[in-house]
Amino acid sequence: MFYTRKYIIKGKYDIVHVHLFPAFYWVSLAAKLIFKNKPKFIYTEHSTHNRRREKSYLRPLEKFIYNSYDKIISISQQTEDNLIRWLKPKDSKKFIVIENGVDIEKFINAKPYNKSEIDSEFTNDTKLICMVGRFTEAKDQATLIKAMKKVPDNVHLLLIGEGPLKEKNETLAKEIGAKDRVHFLGFRMENCFSL
């Protein structure tokens, strides 16, 4: 919390927007230690439920934490309703719903690719594992690549993304003899899947 407080003060931010546990606890505590030039603190609630809500003795702590935020955004009405039911605030003016900005119609109506459209050598028997992510230590594509030694030959790995560790992962695939089954597709726009 002191580390977070230091960077909030140093950055002279107007708004600090937080997502997810435990970050919103740390930022809440840091906010309580900022006494002048305090930015607005906003939290986005993504879940209709979490395990903390199963323990009524945590309600006072949760109320204390959420109270640090100037606005609490929920991604759906049900998310907000459940949160308000849990916190039982005296004033619900700081709560607002802003639904996710994702057009879910395109996912509902999505048609699967024919595997041969991705690679002409893929057959219906080809099993595909796909990972989309930046090539960094946190994403750890290397573990997936190493796992390719332990799966049948008809399993192929599609890695979509760019990043500083991409070349290192390409070298790893060659070194373990999996380069023909690990496909580095780079950055992709939607509907651009061919190898």
* Individual helix count: 8
Overall number of strands: 7
What sort of overall outline do the alpha carbons produce when their principal axes are compared? elongated
Strand portion:
15-25%
Task: Give the structural class.
Answer: alpha/beta
The structural domain count equals 2
* Biggest pleated sheet: 4 strands, parallel
Give the neighbour order of strands across the main sheet: 1-2-3-4
Keywords:
single chain; 195 residues; alpha/beta; Rossmann fold; 2 domains; 4-stranded parallel beta sheet; 3-stranded parallel beta sheet; 8 helices
Task: Provide a descriptive summary of the structure in words.
The protein has 195 residues and is α/β, with parallel strands linked by helices. The chain folds into 2 domains: 2-97, 3-Layer(aba) Sandwich (Rossmann fold); 111-186, Glycogen Phosphorylase B (Rossmann fold), CATH 3.40.50.2000. Helices cover 33% and strands 18% of the residues. The chain has 8 helices and 7 strands; from the N terminus they run αβαβαβαβααβαβαβ. The strands form 2 sheets. A 4-stranded parallel beta sheet has the order 1-2-3-4, covered by helices on one side. A 3-stranded parallel beta sheet has the order 5-6-7, covered by helices on one side. Helix 1 (2-11) packs across helix 2 (23-32). The mean pLDDT is 92.
